[in-house]
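Objective 1b. Sequence-to-structure analysis of Tripartite tricarboxylate transporter TctB family protein.
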Amino acid sequence: MRAALRDSEILFPAGTALAILAALLLDHLIYGHGLRVLGFPAGLGLVTAGLCLFRLWQRHRERRQADAAPALQPMEPTLALPLVPVLKAMLGLAASVPLVWLFGFVIGLPLYVAVYVKWRGSGWVTALICAGLALAAAVGFIELLDMPQPHGPLVWP
C-alpha cells in the first residue's frame, strides 16, 4: 500500500474546488445570490483548494531539496503527473454542468453521480447508493436554504 497520495490525487480535489468556485461566481453574477447563500460552499472550496495547492507546493519543494541532496541517500521514485487520468476525471466532472442544466439540480446531480460512479468502474449498487446520498444532500441543501430551484428544460413542473 502506498504511504502517500499521488500528485494527481491531490490535484483533482483542488481542480474540483476551483470549478465549484467558478460555478459559485457565475451563480452570483447570474442569479445575484449573496454571501448568505454562497458563503459556506465558497469558503469550503477556498480552504480545499488552498490546502491541496499548499501540499503540492510542499512536494515540489521536497523534490527540489531531494535533487540537491547527495546521492548517497536512497530516494523514492518521484511520480510524474499522469495527464490522461486527470483530464479524464476533469472531463467527467464537466459533464455535470449539462446534466444539471437539462434536468435541474435535484434530478441532474444524482443522475450525474450515478453515471459517473458507474463510468469509473463501480457496481450498480454503489452507483445507486451514491446517487441516493447526492439526492439527500441536494434536497437537504435546498430545504436548509429554503431556496426555490429552477427546473431544467427537460423537467416539467
